[in-house]
Amino acid sequence: MKVLRLSTLLAGLALVGAAPARAAAVPVQAAALAPGARAAAPGGARDDARRQDPADSLYRAGREALGRGDFRQAETLFRRITATYPKSSVANEAVYFQAFALYRAGGTSDLQRARQVLQALRADTTRVVTAALRRDALSLDTRVCGELARRGDENCARIVRQRADSGGLGAAVRGVVDVAVSSTAEALASVEVQRALVDAQVAAAQAGREGARAAAQAMESPEVQRAIADAGREAARAAQDGLRAGAEAMRHMAVEMNGMATSPGRTRRNPNCRDADDDERVIAINALQQMDAERAMPILRKVLARRDECSETLRRRAVFLVAQKKSPESAELLVSAARTDPNTEVREEAVHWLSRVGGDRALDFLRDVARSDTSVALRKRAIYSLAQSKEPRARETLRALASTSGTTPEVRSEAIYWIGRSSDAADVQWLRQLFPSLETRELKERALGALSRQKDIAPFMMDVARDTREPIEVRKSALGWAVRSATVPQLTALWDATKEKELKESLVLALSRRKEPEALDKLIAIARSDADRDVRKSAVFWLTRSNEPRALAFLQELIER
User: Fold this and answer.
1) Residue 126: pLDDT above 60?
2) What pLDDT was estimated at residue 232?
3) How many angstroms separate the CA atoms of 252 and 335, rounded?
4) Which of 36, 48, 82, 395 is the most buried (most CB within 10 A)?
């Protein structure tokens, strides 16, 4: 059970920084983000005080039930707290979590009971309920009501419409991020997490002591130093593409879950702005859109027309909601936001989401932005959106940007990247043909990184690696991508055609990592007879790392010469 609690806690920590809209989607995360999470986090005097509370064991069991998705059991445990220990320090939080468990259970009667529980919490004058808990209860009530409205509850439909179109709501989710940050810090200080970290450190230290001497000797050798340098260069190049792809994937996942895309370097929000009002209205607008999209669009139009600083968060999320409806009206709203919104991030999000809306209006605007906008960041977003389109005109624009030497280098690199990532074989072939004419090493390496994800690309990479007209760094980069799928005969053939020492050392490293007998044969042959003494020493070094009898026999032969 202790292991289960720890894994549950760590899973919650992995998601704790997400936006409030996700709290209703993931039970563990909801437990971490809920108002009681700060007080419930173990560690310190607060933890000692809570452990003395007679309801503590029930509360912990309820949280664990939420973490494993057993919402019926969780609701029962939290209800027992309010019935048996109404004066407990966790009683108010138990009411909230009881309602949340009912919401996650999902039945219509469960949702109706969840609203009753939340209404009782707000109406009970005998309870001392914090402002944060009241706000979270209101936010949860909006989610519950939105779901009931979708199932035909007219009263909830009216409430959702009122909340979606209200400008003066009390903030329902104010301080959620602060609570999440505090919960993370306190959870990391807990006894269980600290013990787990210490255990991991002890295990690592023991393993380190056992291998320290051999590692130190190996690290001192010039062969390893060269290999590390080679690996570092290749890793850096791969990381540039991998981080970009990873960031894009994370960005999309965050957008889908959160209703807004994250941007690097996002400007700091004015502390006087009331984000919570915006969040509450987005929850209501989203629910309204799901049950009555036609009524949501006028509200979203009004939101996007606002220009005050404190509506920036709301406008970014409104952009996402508009994009969920593929229509000329959606395209018109997004184009207008991309052109006229005073906030850079809102404009970038509008350009990004035009890829989902589609249509001639969206495509024409994206082409214009990609070709001539003054903002490089906006042009790159437009290139991404064009890359998602199947329209021939979108492909033509990307190819023109990638092949024109006068294009801004960063924009040209982006176009090359997304063409190389295309699933269309014609795009891949086109970029392969363009490759020799690319003027700079950076563009060539960008193209290689993008093409590396394509199937059956090893022969092309090997051709680049053996092309003496290419810069040595480009050839080494191509070799680094090729070795992932190249056969040993291909590597051997490249060795035989290679004269450059740097490339040979990279090939020695590549052969040393292969398990096929032919790779070991070639490595022994290099160590025995290559004309370059440094290359022979490198091959010998990697043979000393092998446990194969033939490698040991060669080393003995070498010693006895």
Assistant:
1) yes
2) 53
3) 20
4) 36
pLDDT for 328 beyond 70: yes
Give the C-alpha separation, 475 to 477, whole Å: 5
**CB 5 within 8 Å of CB 192:** yes
Please count the other Cβ atoms lying within 10 Å of the Cβ belonging to residue 154. Answer: 9
Q: What average pLDDT score do residues 449-463 get?
A: 91
Q: Please provide residue 454's backbone torsions phi and psi, each rounded to the nearest 5 degrees.
A: -85, 150
Of 13-27, 79-93, 336-350, the range with the lowest mean pLDDT is 13-27
**Which amino acid makes up residue 296?**
A
Q: What is the pLDDT of residues 43-75, one digit of tens each?
A: 444 455 555 678 888 899 999 999 888 999 999
- pLDDT for res 234: 47
Compute the distance between CA of residue 97 and CA of residue 30 in angstroms, rounded to an integer.
9
> Coil, helix or strand for 551?
helix
d(CA 202, CA 100): 40
CA 486 – CA 504 distance, rounded (Å):
16
For the chain, how many helices (H) and strands (E)?
Answer: 31, 0
What confidence score (pLDDT) does residue 473 get? 93
| Those residues with Cβ within 8 angstroms of residue 465's Cβ, 6 or more apart along the chain or in another chain | 475, 476, 478, 479, 482, 494, 503
Give the N- to C-terminal CA distance of the chain in Å, as an integer.
63
Contact 412, 403 (CB under 8 A): no
Pick from 245-254, 428-437, 487-496: least confident? 245-254
Per-residue pLDDT, 418: 96
Eight-class DSSP state of 261: -
**Would you report the helix, strand and coil content of the chain in percent, each value rounded to 5?**
75, 0, 25
Return d(Cα 478, Cα 461) in angstroms, integer.
5
- Establish how many alpha carbons lie within 13 A of residue 341's alpha carbon, considering only the half-sphere containing its beta carbon: 31
Highest mean pLDDT among 11-20, 193-202, 275-284, 550-559: 550-559
Average pLDDT over residues 77-83: 90
Which residue in this structure is represented by tokens 């290559």? Answer: 530
Q: Which residue has the tokens 């509506």?
A: 311
Give the residue among 556, 550, 489, 480 at the shortest CA–CA distance from 520.
550
In order of their start, the domains of the chain are 2-129+175-188 (1.25.40)
Secondary structure (DSSP) of 284-318: HHHHHHHH-HHHHHHHHHHHHH---GGGHHHHHHH
Q: What is the dihedral of CA 439, 441, 445, 451, to 10 degrees?
A: 20
Task: Return the structure tokens found at 215.
Answer: 């590692």
Distance CA 398, CA 396 (A): 6
- Give the closest residue to 380 by CA, choosing from 357, 362, 398: 398
| Residues 317, 284 contacting (CB under 8 angstroms) | no
DSSP string, 88-131: STTHHHHHHHHHHHHHHH--HHHHHHHHHHHHHHHH-TTS---H
Q: Which two tokens stand for residue 516?
A: 């096929």
**Pick from 319-328, 367-376, 435-444: least confident:** 319-328
User: Which one-letter amino acid corresponds to residue 81?
Assistant: I
